[in-house]
Design goal:
The chain is an all-beta fold. 0% of the residues lie in helices and 45% in strands. The chain has no helices and eight strands. It has a four-stranded mixed β-sheet with strand order 1-6-5-4, with no helix packed on it. The chain is elongated.
């Protein structure tokens, strides 16, 4: 399966992906930083929700899953094929300001959204001057 590593670091928060793989595919992801969280949006068309797994361990967020081949039987013949099938894995190293215990996920219409909340002490705040 394909594995890609990212790092959530101080500006830039994420490093350039390593897209080398022997098999599988690498789904595209957008990363948006908000005041209180990061939003990771994965394009996963054709991936069943049940095959998607997201976990945090040792300061790393790992998202994996599998898109099954759309071949129905041996009689099918592809003249051209760009849509890969197989397993994928994306791994992101979490920076200290991400709260690994507060991650929310939703999956709808082939799009996975993961919201990674920032720790309270790292969120921007306004200082009142008297």
């Amino acid at each position: 399966f394909a594995m890609t590593y990212y790092s959530v670091l101080p500006r830039p928060r994420f490093s350039v992906p390593d897209t080398s793989s022997d098999t599988g595919w690498v789904p595209p992801v957008n990363i948006v930083e908000r005041d209180d969280s990061f939003l990771l949006t994965f394009d996963l068309p054709g991936v069943d929700k049940e095959s998607i797994k997201a976990s945090v361990e040792d300061g790393q967020l790992t998202v994996s899953g599998e898109r099954l081949s759309d071949e129905k039987n041996d009689d099918n013949y592809f003249s051209y094929r760009e849509r890969p099938a197989g397993k994928f894995t994306r791994t992101f190293r979490l920076h200290d300001d991400v709260d690994g215990d507060k991650i929310n996920g939703t999956y709808k219409n082939g799009v996975l959204n993961l919201e990674l909340h920032k720790k309270e002490e790292t969120k921007p705040r306004t200082i009142k001057i008297k």
